[in-house]
Amino acid sequence: MAEIGGDIDRLIQADRDRESRSINMIASGSYCPLAMRQAEGQHLVNKNASGWPGRRTMANCQEVDQIEQLAIDRAKSVFGSQAANVQALSSTLANVAVLRAIMKPGERLLSFDDRAGGHISHGTARHITSAEREVRSFGLTGDDRLDLEGARRLAKEFQPKVIVAGATSYPRAIDFRALREIADEVGALLFSDIAHVAGLVAVGLHDNPVPYSDVATTSTQKTLCGPRSGAFTFSRSEFAAAIDEAIYPGLQGPAPMQLIAARAIQLDLITKPYFASLMQAVVANGKALCEGLREAGYDLFTGGTDTHMVVVDLRDSDWEPATLVPAFGDHGITGNGIRVPRRAGDRNDAAYRFGSTAMTIRGMDEAGFRTLGRLFGRILGRGPNAGVDMGIAREIEMLALAHPVPSYVD
Ligand SMILES: *Cc1c(COP(=O)(O)O)cnc(C)c1O
């Protein structure tokens, strides 16, 4: 990259240096194993292979057919589904395609509200998944838990075709089995979106809703620790052909075979013992982070976590998402300033979302996460306009440098 792309290469190296000096607490964050990065960078970037294994519109696809079929077979076996599609370019796009495949225009969708922790691609007004359909949402109870009774009441009244749920900022396990029962009571389909927790699901640390859902999707990143830009789509056999068509050619062009190769490798890696140990540590570390934040005097949204995700509740403060991001960022910490539902008497609706996956991959243990929780509490305690505390920033940098990205992912 000396003559062409040198300027971009310098920026890439600078980004890598910044990453190594900072603490990555992004809930979606992880570090992709080297084998997948290498798979995404080889000659298959040139391959044209429109269609599906055994059903291509061009010749010379024997090997890529085997690669994609392995990815499909592994996806079905790891998550226990009748059918799988591995081509979607992101989980947002998978959700768009799934809803088009299983719903007709004008039909009704019941979803977990995005402000309560659901995802924008579950039919929110500003997303294309709300087009041509009626959408209503259920949220949280007074103690910030997913409101199953509210969901049941709404389902009976609204009679949806599909119930979709999945968490993007709700740190608790979703009771997908209870949602299955509700769907059965009203004759609706259940669509489970496990984008954040799929890694935990794969190793049995979270209930696996795939076998009893009509359709399910997950991104390849987040706790699955794969590269960004990918999704797995699972379904009962009867929906498989419609979902395949809705992804390609309904929404995307021919699947990039280098990405499909990486997915096949990923679905093998996540069955190895090291991945199960990693996920156990991720969950333990999430709980340790909660303890550190509590020791620093902070409340947690929903009272704690069942997953890799930790959300500190700042509804009783002067913080705003827009002041939280630079306050943490300037101290070398990346996470997300978010809004959560405001209850009666709350001053505010601000919260800050952390995740334990990335720093667990960098080798941080429970004691380290507890220390981080206390340090984050010190930053929050200074208030929105206090600027940078160089002492805290230095401590954060030392912790980051003591936990380098390991060589098997770098
Ligand atoms: C992150 C997320 C998505 C979108 O994933 P992308 O692959 O980034 O498009 C979808 N659903 C849920 C629940 C998510 O958390």
From TrEMBL:
<dbReference type="InterPro" id="IPR015421">
    <property type="entry name" value="PyrdxlP-dep_Trfase_major"/>
</dbReference>
<dbReference type="GO" id="GO:0030170">
    <property type="term" value="F:pyridoxal phosphate binding"/>
</dbReference>
<feature type="domain" description="Serine hydroxymethyltransferase-like">
    <location>
        <begin position="7"/>
        <end position="373"/>
    </location>
</feature>
<dbReference type="InterPro" id="IPR015424">
    <property type="entry name" value="PyrdxlP-dep_Trfase"/>
</dbReference>
<dbReference type="InterPro" id="IPR049943">
    <property type="entry name" value="Ser_HO-MeTrfase-like"/>
</dbReference>
<dbReference type="GO" id="GO:0005829">
    <property type="term" value="C:cytosol"/>
</dbReference>
<dbReference type="InterPro" id="IPR015422">
    <property type="entry name" value="PyrdxlP-dep_Trfase_small"/>
</dbReference>
<dbReference type="InterPro" id="IPR001085">
    <property type="entry name" value="Ser_HO-MeTrfase"/>
</dbReference>
<dbReference type="GO" id="GO:0019264">
    <property type="term" value="P:glycine biosynthetic process from serine"/>
</dbReference>
<feature type="modified residue" description="N6-(pyridoxal phosphate)lysine">
    <location>
        <position position="222"/>
    </location>
</feature>
<dbReference type="InterPro" id="IPR039429">
    <property type="entry name" value="SHMT-like_dom"/>
</dbReference>
<keyword id="KW-0663">Pyridoxal phosphate</keyword>
<comment type="similarity">
    <text>Belongs to the SHMT family.</text>
</comment>
<dbReference type="GO" id="GO:0004372">
    <property type="term" value="F:glycine hydroxymethyltransferase activity"/>
</dbReference>
<protein>
    <recommendedName>
        <fullName>Serine hydroxymethyltransferase-like domain-containing protein</fullName>
    </recommendedName>
</protein>
<dbReference type="InterPro" id="IPR019798">
    <property type="entry name" value="Ser_HO-MeTrfase_PLP_BS"/>
</dbReference>
<dbReference type="GO" id="GO:0035999">
    <property type="term" value="P:tetrahydrofolate interconversion"/>
</dbReference>
<dbReference type="Pfam" id="PF00464">
    <property type="entry name" value="SHMT"/>
</dbReference>
<keyword id="KW-0808">Transferase</keyword>
<keyword id="KW-0554">One-carbon metabolism</keyword>
